[in-house]
Amino acid sequence: MKSLPKNSINFALISFLTITTQPLAVADEAEDRTSDEEFDVISVTASRIERKTKEVAGSIDVIDSERIESEKMFNIKDAIQGSAGVLINSKNSAYDSRLIIRGAGQKANYGVREIMVIRDGVPMTDPDSFSRFDFIDTQDIERIEITKGPGSLFGAGSAGGTIQIISKSVFDTDSNRVKLGAGEFGQQNLHGRLAGDINDNNAASITASYRKTDNDWRDWNEFESKQLALKHGYLLDNGGTLESELSYHEADLQLPGSMDDEEFERYLDTGEQKDTTSSPWQHSGRYSTIWFFNSRYEQEMDNLTLKPRVYANQWDHYHPVTGAINDNPGTTVLGTDLEITYKHQLWGESTLVTGVTARRDNTEGAKKYTYADVETAPPPAWNPTGPATILHTNSDRAGDLLEEEDATNTLYGFYIQETMQPTEKVNLEFGFRYDRNNFDIDSTAFGEYSYGSGTYTFFDTPELTKTDKTFNLFSPKLGLTYALDQRINVYGLVAQSGQVPSESEIQSNPKLDAATAQNVEVGFKGREQAWSFDLAIYRTTVTDEIVSTLNEDLTTEFQNAGETLKKGVELSGRYDVANNIWLEGSFAYSDYTFTDFDELVRNGRSQTPVDRSGNQLPYIPRQQYGLGLGYYHPLGIKAVIRSNSWGSYYVDNANTEKYDGYDFLTNLMLSYQTGSHTLALNVENLFDKRYATEVKKSTSGNKTYSAGAPRNAMLTYTYLF
User: Fold this and answer.
1) Residue 112 bridge partners (DSSP)
2) How many CB atoms sit inside 10 A of residue 34's CB?
3) What is the pTM of this model?
4) What is the pLDDT of residues 85-142, one digit of tens each?
5) What is d(CA 23, CA 45) in angstroms, rounded to the nearest whole number?
6) CA 593-595-601 angle, 5° bins
7) Quick one: which of 220, 315, 348, 719 could link to 421 by a disulfide (CB 3.0–4.6 Å)?
8) Residue 258 in 3-state DSSP?
9) For the segment 453-495, what is each residue's pLDDT rounded down to a tens digit?
């Protein structure tokens, strides 16, 4: 077969390189390193060109294949947790990750917002910044790159940063395997990959994965996922490379209800969340099917490289949530990204990256229903014929029609960035991204759920609403990196990113503007054979922050209000104690405050603005830190123990109460490899801590808790061929 293209060769080499949060490779590989270039990894996410991470002006974490292969990878959080400044949890241990980077994403009630998630260059994030992980086969990941804060050329409206998930290349024929796993709480993991050469020019792979868990330590918490992917690679005679993928994903996810104070205390005693919780919504979940296609071409022509890409996906879901059941029969997504890279001499060796992006998401016939099976309280004595308050749901069966909607979301973008090396020690990059995002939404409402009364109300006449809203986002960036010596670089970064409201926020208030995040950052990066570290100090100002308010009828509306200031320090590092023992650590200090914010607080049926300026943002701990210890023996024995801690945080905007967080939540991995066979044991929450992944408090004073999973173990056998 012909030589692999350069990007495929990088995939193969990256697993042997050191990263900030990972140990060096085994001893015999480490002894062969002779230059500082071999102590760093290549990143492609921050600037769309291949650069060593210490040369990039910005904070980057690269999670390599060694870390990924040591985790059971039921959830993307298995690999990401422990990264400084990144908060991630899951209510199901499946794909329902709640992700926060430097405070961005904090307002999302579920899922991921304000952070661009990319898989192999294709955005998994909708134009309104909502991301889903049900597209992603976590068993087929080669590496993960995290860029924190504004500044990524991939990020269309991503104030928090960018996460790129890079799957195994079709040209990687050394990762064929069968993987079988079983564990507590009904955990099952079946995975297989077969890749090979068809002839001198063609390669193909097939990947299949099945994951399941019943999580029977609490009610309504099952998960099942089926995924199948076909990939094809073609090497053209002119040196070009064409890689394509067609995949199918089916994911069923149940989301358990939250707990009140009394129920949380009972969980702390028993370690279980059984029977009905006080939450009325007992049957939330997401049940989706997705077809996904992606094709990318790369062609080098002297100093010019062309990288066009097209992608398409079609997804549907049945999504019971608070107050209603969303039933989307299908959203069709069509997109393209046409990228050009030009190497030249401008001020020393320079690289220009430019391109255009276009995407269209079209949804027809999306519906919203009542819950058909509910238990209600008797109507009040003063209104015996009035509607009955919903106490809790008895199933997730759809009832009466509440709303119909057609929506089209169109995104057009342009990006350009120049990277120059005027001297051997200096790297300079500057550029911008411009995006134009249009929402065209037609909805017909037949009724609604009233959060104030806890009842469904139907209108005498259907209410028709048309929303046509366009946002223009300008995201400039200027970065400078200077090499103090061969081991340590210092960098500075100034960047801005816009953040569009979600579709539901726009429908609530069509006058909403996009929020704007402006970031100033300095940092140090060190790389050596036995150690590495990253230090970042940043200051981010967010203006026109989008906040929720309660109207007189107790419905939720969103408005642009005030400003927040986010200041922080992030430090992570690794040290090789010996050839086969390594230590790692991370620490983040976050000081996030409202600098201008009036919160509308309900008092009966009226609202009173209360100044929250100077208060801390809720849910974000001041301190977050992690520790890790790893051991490798030449006979094939490996042990890794990692522990993460979240400090205390306020649970409301008023800063009236704190949750203590948790200390040293510990995971353990033990494995033994002999030849092509590997047996691994993963234990989560080793010391069986009882804790909450999330605590919230409403303006009325009610608190809700989401419980963390108890100790659980999973045994996995892998055969490589």
Assistant:
1) 131
2) 8
3) 0.89
4) 999 888 777 777 788 999 888 776 666 888 889 999 999 888 777 787 888 999 999 9
5) 22
6) 85
7) 348
8) coil
9) 789 999 999 999 999 999 999 999 999 999 999 999 999 999 9
